[in-house]
Amino acid sequence: MNYISHPLIRPESIEERQYQFSIALRAQDGNTMVVLPTGLGKTAVATIAAAARIKSTGGRFLMMAPTKPLVDQHLKTFERDFIDPEDEAFSGFALFTGETKTSERQRLWREKRFIFATPQIIKNDIIAGRYSLKDVSLLVVDECHRAVGNYAYVFIAQEYMKTARHPLILAMTASPGSQEDKVAEVCSNLDIQIIETRTEEDPDVRPYIHQRDLKYVDVPLPPGIKVVTDGLKTILQNRLDTLTQMGFVVPKADRLTMKALNGLKGQINASMRTNTRDAYQAMSIHAELMKIKHAITLGESQGSMVLKNYLFKLLSEGTSPSGTKAGKRLAADPLFGEIIDEASSWENEIHPKPEIAAEIVEKQLEEFPDSRIIIFANYRDSVNLLDEYLKGRGVDCKKFIGQASRDSEKGLSQKKQIETLTGFRNGEFRVLIATSVGEEGLDVPSTDLVIFYEAVPSEIRSIQRKGRTGRHGSGSIIVLVTKGTSDETFRYVSQNREKTMKKGIAGLASATSGSSHAGAADAGFGSPTETDSPETSRKGQISIDSFIQAGPSIIADDRETSSKVLELLHVKGASISLERLEYGDYAIGDRIIVERKTTRDFADSLIERDLLGQVKRMADMCMKPVVIIEGEELYSQRNINPNAIRGALAAMSIGMGISIIQTKDAEDTAEMLYVLAGREESEYGSRKSPHFHKTYRSERESLEYVISSFPSIGPKNARDLLDHFGSIQAIMNAEIEQLKAVPGIGDKIAKSVFELSRKKYQ
Asked: Taking a C-beta distance cutoff of 8 angstroms, is the pair 157, 141 a contact?
């Protein structure tokens, strides 16, 4: 076996594969998207590309991936394969996740050359001005198909191309998607100029492809579940008939896809804008359709016990005093009552899928005891069911689920996820039962069998699931398909989308094809002689060194980082600090706290949470409370009487003295916050008050807090008084002339402190 030879790559660590080498060198010519089937070594391409780039250009390397387990995996791979060049400025490897403290990340950024991070952390740090990307000479974006909408990759790529001295992006994915407009959006968001793709049929790839057998297993739908799903379909048809009578154009029940449901919702929203009678009832019926459609899917593809749990959850919601009208109407439907009675009779799982899955696993382990098997299921309830089934048969298995806690079940922490993957990789147990969190980027060698508990319509998810086997040897893929249900539909949808995706990507790759200008010797391959490439800068690029943030200061709650508003404020040049605010979402100067609500969130808070109590507590904590309501159609959100919304607005503005500002979208909100901050700073200075954003204070801060609460005394005057007198008691005992001796304390403030500290409470 031949290996890659390069001064920065450890000898005999990366197998020499011509397609990987060619892609990595081509990626030196410009921002590149690499589309490679799972198991063909995207990380090896990144390593080779990094060696070439660092050798020729120097600088830092930043690699991002969506999850901590995947980031941790990349870090370990680079530590194993890469030789970090000695550099007085920085060297070594570092991991950035939510568990890495802010101060530690700042220190590591200064000291380390190779940074491996989740994108949200990098985005937050850039917005807060903790470091810049100016020295990053290669940015690797793993699972780049996520770079759409408001995902952090989009902001980071734009910021990187604007600020880096020598920017170069390497984007990697196994499946960018079949929709041309989405692939084009990813390319635009990451400023992609080159697309390098390989399929399993390409001659330079074929020698490294192991046989994968794909088999579909037809599963009959049990009569008991069919009775219930048929009843649900009758309810579904009744609701569609009602909407038809209201004048809406509705799809047929058997064609009620999510796309069709979204189209129907668009019709209803349009009716709300024109105040059409029955529009609010129609929206409530739409909510019923969503619930019923989901229940049918659970019964057909997941099983009786998963369906039973969901039906009883709907019943509980519908009989609760706080339940929605949609939930109450469904619970009151006599046919739904009959369905509940039927489901109540199920004591054990009656769907054949769990039994079939268990039999497949047992047969595989009987024939090949050292096998590693992954079972993918869409829902945690199904994962739990399979876990119980297999353990009941003596199969050693573990669950692999996301971090979020749902209902009474806790999620897996990132640490636990990594431990579970490591145990599976090391053969400590043979079967991994995973939700979608296990679909992206798992480095699990020799996975011999992958079982799809259900077919998935997404070509991206299907490709990722299949890619978990056949990586280092032959493997099998088995898809369980319930006959005559959505499982069959999803099977064919996924197959067609995969074909469309391959065809589309091949066309895009052809459009960007060309010979590489990066020589192997220049990049350090096959020659020990170092060749320094001339420093070049992008046309029109402004150096970060000459850019000074002169914008106003805004403190943002650290839970606001997922919104587009912070990105837009950063682009405008605002000086942003991220902190955990006790009240509101943004704090401006000493006087202003801003609570931002989208129109939907405003309506939800009014119905389900104590909106007025929340904003009153905020108003009590500052001089100038502001509520920004972002979005349109405030009066058409939820099924709320418009006068209820008007009453809430009146109570906030008249009763609480809150300024209410309505903005069109996130960009409009950012513009408004920028103007508010600029105006406040120009008139009152850039002081920031400790009175509404500190949840913990040192003794020194507590003393400042007390003194700054006096009228007209801000943080600076409080510190000056404490420095001068030494204690709160000494300040309280001081005479007016003694107080005036402190710089910044005039006659008015001195009299106020003197008189207020001696005034009796009545």
From this structure: yes
